[in-house]
Design goal:
Elements lengths: L7 H25 L5 H27 L10 H11 L14 H24 L4 H23 L4
Length: 154
């Protein structure tokens, strides 16, 4: 199913599903970090916490806008759409522990995929209010990418 075919409620449900998937993946990465690298583990947990905060904000904004995340799509269909837009979710983390370089790279990939999704949702938004909604999350993702690229882990 194409994004432009989704209703606003379905797009919001997709955002919620994506935030859950990304947050879960970041938690997995944090569990797989080399125990000696607490700063990387904390970075990944902080990013996962951002995803949880976004999920709450998306739910609150959708309720405020009067557009609940109602959908005719099954959870499996939503998951399929998420995987289509987040190819890194289905990639293996490899064997062994996640090192600093690969951990920041994996987190950055997730954020870049998130930005692309929100950009596409904004492009296919039916009105200015929903476009602003998706652009807000696009900017949040861009901020995270910039943070990951520039953070100095000690």
């Amino acid at each position: 199913m194409q994004l432009e075919e989704l209703t606003l409620g379905e797009k919001i449900a997709l955002c919620q599903r994506a935030e859950l998937a990304v947050g879960s993946r970041l938690h997995l990465f944090a569990r797989l970090v080399d125990p000696e690298d607490e700063p990387l583990r904390q970075l990944l947990l902080d990013l996962a916490s951002d995803e949880a905060r976004r999920l709450v904000e998306i739910e609150r904004l959708s309720a405020w806008a009067g557009t609940p995340a109602a959908t005719r799509l099954t959870p499996e269909e939503l998951d399929h759409i998420v995987l289509d837009h987040f190819p890194s979710l289905s990639k293996s983390t490899g064997e062994g522990m996640i090192q600093r370089e690969s951990g920041t790279y994996l987190a950055q990939c997730l954020q870049e995929e998130s930005v692309r999704l929100y950009r596409q949702l904004a492009e296919h938004a039916g009105d200015g209010e929903s476009r602003s909604f998706f652009l807000h999350w696009l900017r949040e993702g861009e901020w995270d990418i910039d943070f990951i690229r520039n953070v100095i882990l000690t």
